[in-house]
Amino acid sequence: MRLDPRLSQVFMKILLWTFTGFTLFILIFIIVNISIKGLPQVTPTFLLQDPLDMGRHGGIFSTIVATVYVTVLAILLASPLGVGSAIYLTEYTREGWVTRLIRFGAECLAGVPSIILGLFGFVLFVMKLGFGWSILSGGLTLAIMVLPIIIRTSEEAIKAVPQEYRQVCYSLGLSKWQTITRIVLPSALPGISTGIMLSVGRSLGETAVLLFTAGAALRTPTSLFDSGRTMAVHFYILAREGISMPNAYGTAAILMISILLINIVAYSLMQHLMKRYS
Amino acid sequence: MDAKIRLDHLSFFYGDHQVLEEVSFEVRANEIFGLMGPAQSGKSTLLKVLNRLSDLIPNARVTGSVTLDGEDILAPDYDLVGLRRRVGLVLSKPVPLPRSIFENLVLAPRLSGKGNRAFLEELAETSLKAARLWDEVKDRLHASALNLSGGQQQRLCLARTLAMQPEVILLDEPTSGLDPISTAKIEETLFQLKSNYTIILVSNNTKQIARATDRVAFLLMSKLIEVGETPKVFTEPKDQRTDDYITGRFG
Question: What ipTM was predicted for this assembly?
Answer without folding.
Answer: 0.88
